[in-house]
Design goal:
Pfam families: FCD, GntR
Number of helices: 10
Number of domains: 2
Organism: Sellimonas intestinalis
Protein name: GntR family transcriptional regulator
Keywords: DNA-binding, Transcription, Transcription regulation
Helix content: over 70%
GO molecular function: DNA binding; DNA-binding transcription factor activity
CATH topology of the largest domain: Four Helix Bundle (Hemerythrin (Met), subunit A)
CATH superfamily of the largest domain: GntR ligand-binding domain-like
Oligomer: single chain
C-alpha cells in the first residue's frame, strides 16, 4: 500500500510540474497509456494522480471523457490579474500605512535574491516570483486571503511563464524590484508601487494575453 501511495504521489508531482512549466501545454490531450509510458509506471498510480489534478482544476474532462490540460483563456488572465492588483494593491498600501515598509523591504528582498538566483530558469524564477507576491499579501495575516491566493497560484505560474516568453524581461524585472526595495526603505510609496504595478500587473498581463 505504501508503495502504491508513493508512486501515485510521485506521478502527481511529476505531472503537475510538467503542466505548470508548460511541458504539457494548455489544451494538450493526456492519456493514461501515454503517461504510464512516459513515467514508467502502471496506469493505477497515473489514474490516482489524474484525479487529484482534476480536483485542483489543472486537467479537465471533455464530453468524450478525454483528459485535457486546462486551457487559459483571456478572461482567466483578465480576472486573475484584476484579483492580484486588488489584493496586492491593498496589501502594499497596508505595508506603508502600518509603518512596516522597512521591515517588508527586507522580507521581499529575500524573495528577490531567490528570483535573481533563478534568472536562468524561467519556471523556477516564476515559482520564486509567486512567493514574492505571497510575501506582500502576508501583511494582512489573514488565512482566508492566503487560501484564496494559493488557490490561484497554479494559474498564476502558467500565466507568468507566458508573460516571460512574450515580453517580460527577467533581468529587467529583477533590477526594478531591487529599485522598488530601495524606495520602500526610503518610504516612497508612490514610486515603489509604480514599479510593482507596471512590471507585475500591467506588463505581466499584456504579455500573458499574447499567448
Amino acid at each position: 500500500m505504501a508503495e502504491k501511495i508513493s508512486l501515485a504521489d510521485q506521478a502527481y508531482h511529476t505531472m503537475k510540474e510538467r503542466i505548470l512549466n508548460l511541458t504539457y501545454p494548455p489544451g494538450m490531450q493526456l492519456t493514461e497509456t501515454m503517461l504510464a509510458e512516459e513515467l514508467n509506471m502502471s496506469r493505477n498510480p497515473i489514474r490516482t494522480a489524474l484525479k487529484t489534478l482534476h480536483a485542483e482544476g489543472l486537467v479537465v474532462r471533455d464530453y468524450y471523457k478525454s483528459i485535457i490540460v486546462k486551457e487559459i483563456t483571456d478572461k482567466d488572465i483578465e480576472e486573475i490579474y484584476q484579483l492580484r492588483e486588488l489584493l496586492e494593491g491593498a496589501a502594499f498600501r497596508e505595508i506603508f500605512t502600518s509603518g512596516r515598509a522597512d521591515e517588508f523591504s527586507y522580507r521581499i528582498e529575500e524573495r528577490v535574491v531567490r528570483m535573481c538566483a533563478c534568472a536562468g530558469d524561467i519556471y523556477h524564477w516564476e515559482l520564486a516570483d509567486t512567493q514574492m507576491h505571497m510575501e506582500i499579501v502576508s501583511v494582512f495575516d489573514n488565512e482566508r486571503i492566503n487560501r484564496i491566493y494559493e488557490m490561484y497560484l497554479n494559474e498564476v505560474i502558467r500565466m507568468g511563464l507566458y508573460s516571460v516568453r512574450n515580453g517580460l524581461h527577467i533581468s529587467r524585472a529583477n533590477e526594478n524590484l531591487k529599485k522598488m526595495i530601495r524606495y520602500m526603505r526610503s518610504d516612497q510609496y508612490e514610486k515603489a508601487y509604480e514599479i510593482l504595478r507596471n512590471d507585475h500587473f500591467m506588463i505581466g498581463k499584456s504579455s500573458a494575453l499574447k499567448k
